[in-house]
Every structure is written in structure tokens, then in C-alpha cells.
Amino acid sequence: MSNWERKALNFINQTSRWDKDKHISSFLAFSISLVKSLTMADIALQLEFEDEATAKVKCASPVHLNGIVLNPDPIKKLLYAQGFKSIYWSKIPPPKENALSGILQALSSAVIIPVNTTPNNSLMILGWSAPQTFTPEFQECIETISLRLKEILLQSEQQLYFQRIATRFSAILYTIPHAMVFINNDGLSGWINQEGATLLGLSGPGEQLPAILSDAMAQLRNSATNSEDIYREAVQLFSSPENSITNWNWQLENNTLKVSCFPVNTQQISGRLWIFE
Question: What is the pTM of this model?
Fold first, then answer.
């Protein structure tokens, strides 16, 4: 294993659980510092395209570079010309030909790595005072690091998206006046709103094990005066995962519940939603 292969593996190992153990907001800063150390660069920074007129330096080492603002247009033209691939400058072009001259002063060599971030795209930029020879092994190391960055940032973007969706729908479902229960087909996860928790005698709304939800619903069903009718309807309902039912009467001692049950099938979730009115 070559030296650069070991360094690429080192980067992967040090970021192997970042997307699970730590908040993604600090991941890019950590990565930039780690890559600077592994490549022995003199500067390392993130250049974020904040809007159509602003590209701002962040997470810089040395820190005095933070806050520098560049015109994004010539930088984007450079990226388009290179097909948004990593750029290796063994010799940095003269200022008139260098869209990054504002941050690559007094340097001999540089590497520019496009990184997709949310909500804005970024570059990771490395610079060296002494001239560098970017061997195929070095470039392979950088490309491995780039792929790892994209992987974790994509995972975090998806995670944050689903967290926002979950927060939004939880807020909506908590305000619905009907009891609602969702049981995932994986047998590991379920959810109930406040009305549902009250109806089933559970401690509160939110995530619940399917076994707990199923047991509580079975107790409610068995307390109904028409439990035999409910059982016959249930046999028909569960004869196919695609079946649904509405206006299903569960006659309790003091009131009658109208029960609906629908299959829920998406790429991420498969289960049944129960509504008690």
C-alpha cells in the first residue's frame, strides 16, 4: 500500500462514523483540517457560493482568510470548463488567468475540489507555498477523499430532509382531533398521536414499538361489544396487504368508534395507518 493510499484510508477511517455520531454542521470544517494535515498543505479552506454575486471563504486554515469575498462568475466558468472535476495546478496561473488569485497569493501549487453542500455548493481549496508534483497516486487519494465527502454530505442532506418532513407532519398529526396509529411492517417502529395515546391508554404520543401498539389495540377491540363482528371484518382486511376499510364500527360500552385502516406504501415506509373517530 502506497503512502497516499494509506492517507486516503486514514481519511475514510476518521470520518467513518461522523454521519452517525456527530452533527453534520461541523463535518466540512473537520474534513478541511484533516485533509490539510494529510496533504501537508499550507492553506485549506471552503469557498461557498452564497448567491449569484458572492463566493465567501469559510472554515479556513489559516483563519485570517475567513470572510474573504470573491466574484463567483469567473470561478464557475473555470469549473464548467473543467467539467466540475477536481483541478490540479502544479503551477498556479498568473493573476489575470486565475479566478482564485484573491486567496491563492504567494502560493505555488493548488488543488480545487468541487463539493456539493446544502443549500449552496462549495469548493475545497488546498494550497502549497513550495511547488508540488501531483502524482497519479496523489490524485487518486484526493478523488477518494472527494467521493467520501460527497457520500457523507448526501447522507446528511437526506437525513436532514427526512427530519424536516417528520417534524412538519408530526406537528400536523398532533393537531388532528382523531386518534391515529401507524404500524410499520418492519416490526420495529410505530407512531401514535396524542388522541391515539389517550384512547389506547398509553403514556404519550410519538414513537412506539409495534408490539405495544398492537397489544393496546387488541385490548380495545376485545372490550367492544361487537368484538366477534370486528374479528370477522379483520380477517377480510388482513387477507391482503392492499386491503383497506372505512366506517368500521367498534361498539364500546359508552360510545361507538368509526375506524378506518389504510395501507401505506412508499420507497421509505410500508405499513398501516389506523384512524379512530
Answer: 0.62
